[in-house]
Design a protein that fits this description.
It is a single chain. With 303 residues, this protein is an alpha/beta fold. 36% of the residues lie in helices and 15% in strands. Strands 6-5-4-7-8-9-10 form a 7-stranded parallel sheet, with helices on both faces. A 3-stranded antiparallel sheet has the order 1-3-2, with no helix packed on it. The protein is globular and about 50 Å long.
């Protein structure tokens, strides 16, 4: 598991087991003369869970896509009950089977995340039947078209991801937030670029980058309005996930190379990375993180 229990300060005579030979390298002063060691985690009390999200309810929109699936798997590995939604039930059932096969809990429902009634009805059902909505994540496709320069693109194709992005993110975060406000806790998780801060060079991305800027602004505003109720809003800032590029996309290898080339690690984030970081961000261990963008660009963007 990527995120183990946090390392906590132990006094030398509190350590139950471990190699003390390198203790001097980890010492810090203490008021009673005993060294503080940073090298040993406290033992987990008997009966206490070691997963990050036990009993949390997460709604995943677009759960059959590569990013939605990765986040669903990551949250489920850490004990969350994942409610998978999308337009094709058979595809959702396949993801649910993978989760259940590893001991997780998953429920599926056909939901059009652009339809207000369907989104609201489903969220209300989850809150009533499961008792809470703790996490909401939306990774549906926005209908963006790439490869056509903006100077040559039609208005319809340009505005489609912008309109779809605004509509679906507003509907799904609002549906979850109404319940999160009552319980005074929750995480609204987003995925994509850091607000379109940097333009995409040498590639025509249509209206997608503009949509990312809109969604990032929404995330900041939600964080401001909902923070007093204990609700956090966080974006996973990706420079692209190479293995998520669909197999049938023309020039797939060239696109993967474009994603990887600017990284400092010589690779992009993996789908497993996405799921692991999502689980941490949604956990109480990240409880002070909101209105923030978590950089998982493998160094393609230096903060």
């Amino acid at each position: 598991m990527l995120f183990d229990r946090p390392r906590e300060l132990h006094r030398a005579d509190d350590v139950l087991e471990g190699d003390l030979s390198s203790a001097g390298e980890h010492e810090n002063g203490s008021t009673d003369g005993r060294p503080l060691l940073l090298m040993f985690p406290k033992p987990i009390p008997q009966g206490e869970s070691n997963v990050l999200l036990e009993g949390k309810n997460a709604i995943i929109y677009g759960a059959a896509g590569p990013i939605g699936r990765a986040v669903a798997l990551g949250l489920a590995r850490e004990g969350a009950i994942v409610h998978l939604t999308g337009r094709t039930l058979s595809a959702l059932d396949a993801v649910a089977a993978d989760i259940r096969g590893t001991g997780g809990t998953a429920h599926t429902a056909t939901v059009d995340a652009l339809d207000e009634r369907q989104v609201t009805t489903h969220a209300d059902h989850v809150a009533e039947s499961a008792g809470s909505i703790d996490i909401s994540f939306n990774s549906i496709g926005l209908g963006d078209v790439h490869g056509t320069p903006l100077a040559e693109m039609s208005l319809e194709l340009f505005e489609r991801p912008i309109i779809n992005g605004a509509r679906t993110m507003f509907l799904t975060t609002q549906a979850a937030a109404r319940h999160m406000v009552q319980q005074r806790s929750g995480v609204l998780l987003f995925f994509g670029g850091n607000g379109g801060r940097d333009p995409i060079r040498d590639y025509s991305i249509g209206g997608f980058q503009v949509a990312m800027g809109l969604i990032d602004t929404l995330r900041r505003q939600l964080a401001a309005e909902l923070g007093p109720q204990g609700i956090r809003a966080v974006t996973l800032h990706s420079g692209g996930v190479a293995e998520a590029v669909p197999l049938n996309v023309p020039d797939r290898e060239a696109i993967k190379d474009m994603i990887i080339a600017p990284t400092l690690l010589g690779r992009s984030a993996t789908l497993e990375d996405v799921g692991n970081v999502a689980a941490f961000v949604c956990s109480d261990r990240a409880g002070s993180i909101t209105a923030a963008s978590i950089n998982i660009t493998a160094g393609a963007v230096a903060d």
